[in-house]
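Hi support team,

I'm opening this ticket because the web form for multi-chain structure prediction keeps timing out on my end. I have pasted the exact lines I submitted so you can reproduce it. The total is 567 residues across two entries, so I didn't expect it to be a heavy job. Is there a limit I'm missing, or should I split the entries? Thanks in advance, R.K.
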Amino acid sequence: MADVTITRWGERFSSPVVLASGPAGFGLELVGNIDLSRIGALTTKTVTPKARAGNPQPRLVDCPAGALNSIGLDNPGLVAFREQILPRLAELPTQLFVSLTASTAEAVGHLVAQLSELPALRTIELNLSCPNVSGGVIGADEDLVRAYARAARAAFEGVLLAKLPGDAGNLLVSVGAALDAGADGVTLINSLRGMRIDWQAGRPFLKSVFGGLSGPAILPIALARVYEVRRAFPQAVIVGTGGVVNLGSLVEMLMAGADLVGIGFGLMADPQVGCRLSVELARWLDERGMQSVNEIFGVAQGGGLGVHRSS
Amino acid sequence: MGRREKANRSATRSGSPFSWVEGRVVRRERSARYARVALEGEQLPTSVGAGQFILLRYGEDPCLPRAFSVMSVGEGGLELFVKSEGRVREKLSACPIGTPFEVRGPYGAPYATKISMDRSYVLVAGGSGVAPMLCFAQQHPNLAVIGVYGFRTADACDLHPNVPLVIEEVTGLSATDRLRSVWEPGLGILACGPDAMLRILAETYRDQPDVYVSLEARVGCGIGTCLGCRVATVDGPKRICAEGPLFAIEELPWLT
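Hello R.K., no limit was hit. The queue was backed up. Here is the completed structure from your submission:
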C-alpha cells in the first residue's frame, strides 16, 4: 500500500487529512468511535480566554452545495479547556492542533502563555479569520496578523499556524506577515462570510444574519487561495481547507500545493470521512503506481503528474 | 451517572451513530403534503427510543444530511412521517420503491429518559411533529392518556386513519386550541411541532409541572461535536442532538 504518511516540522502525520477546527469539537466524542490513528491531526474548536455561549439559534442553514454556520466560537474558555479537556486529549492517537483566538494580540499572547508549558500542546492554530464574531476579521489586517503571530510566537516554542481568511484583505500580504512574525505555516481558508434569507418570511435565516459558508461550494475558492499562496511561498507549510469532502477534492487540494488538508463540513456530513479518505488516498496512489503521497504535492503548479516539482 | 443518563447512553449506542448504513424505501403512503415512509436495511438501528431521530442522506448529496424523528421501529425497519417539501424530503416522498438512502443514528435522548415517569401526559403535535408522539404512545401506552395532533389540512387523515387528528381547515381549531379543552390539572404535556405552537404552549402552561417541548433545529453532525444545534437553557447551553431534543419548559425561559 502506498505511503500516505508525511513529515513536517519534524512531526509525523499518519495521513495528510486533518479534522478542521469546529466540527470535531474537542474530539472527545470521536475517541473510541472513529479510528483517529488514520487521521493526520485533529484540530480543536477555537478556545478563547473566557467561555463564550456562541450565537443564538438558528445557527445553521442549508445552502446549495454546502451550509452556512454562525456558531460564534461557542467554547468553554481557557480554564475549562486547560483543566478539564486538554488532559483527556493527551493520549490521542493522532496529532493535536489547538485552535485559539482572543480579541487583542496581547490577550492572545497571554492565552498562549497559559497553555504553552503543557506537554500535550505541540501545535497551535491561531484563528485569525472567524467570520462569526463582531469587530472585523483579524486576518484581513497585515499589522494585526503580525502582532498576533508575534505575541503567540513569543510565548510558545512549538508549531504555530495562522488560519487566514479566503475572502478578506490581501491574503498574500497576510501570509507574508504571519510567516515573518514567526508562524511555521498557514491554514487556508476559513469559511466564507455569507447570508441566506427566508424568502417566504422576508427574514435572514440565521439569527445573527451572517455566517460562514463551508462545503463543496467553496472548494474552488480554497483551491485558488492555496495555489496562489504555494506559488508565492514555495517553502511555506500550508493546511489547505475548504470544501474537501471526497477523494477527488482531497487530491485536488494536495495537487494545488497543500501539505495537509483540513476537512470541516465533510466531517459534519460523515464522521468517518477522515479515515475513509486516508484509505481511499492510499488505494488511489497504489492504482496509479505511486509509492507515496509526496509524489502529488503541488503537481498542479508544475505540469502535472510525473513532472518533478521545480522547488 | 444517573438513571436517565444511563438509559440515554444505552439507547444511543444501539444503532450506528458514527457510520452510515443503508436503508431502502420498502413501503410508502402519500397524501398531498405528507408521506409515511418505511425503510428497511439489515444494519438499521433496531433500538430507538421515542423522541430519538436519525440523519438521512442520498447519493452524493452536497448538503448536510437531514434529521427525521422515528415514528416506529421494528425488526430491520424504521418508519418516518415526512412533509413533502425540501430536497431530501421530496426525494423520500417521490422516489421509486427500493431506492437506497443512507441512515445514521439514532441521536438524542429518548423522551422517557427526560420526563417524570409517574405522571400521565397529553401528547401534542403539529404537522410532522406527530411522528415522535405516535412513537411515544406506542412505547409508553400507560403514560399517554390522549393525543392532540394538529394539521392545517385534512389530507393527513388518509395517512393516519386510526388516529383522531385536529384539522384546522375543518374545525377552525389548532392543536393548542384543542389542548385547552382536554388538558386538566395533574396531566403533563409532551409537545413537538412548529415554533409558534410551542410558544403558545409555553405561554399558557409555563407554570404547570411536567410540561416538555421537543425542539427542532438544523442539526449538523448529529454526534454532538459541531454545536450547530446548541441552545441556551437555565443550566447552560445544551445540544438538541445529545441532551435534547426534549426540554422541560422551565429550562427554556426564552421560549415565549
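A quick check on our side: Chain A touches chain B through 40 residues (CB under 8 Å). Let us know if the file doesn't open in your viewer.
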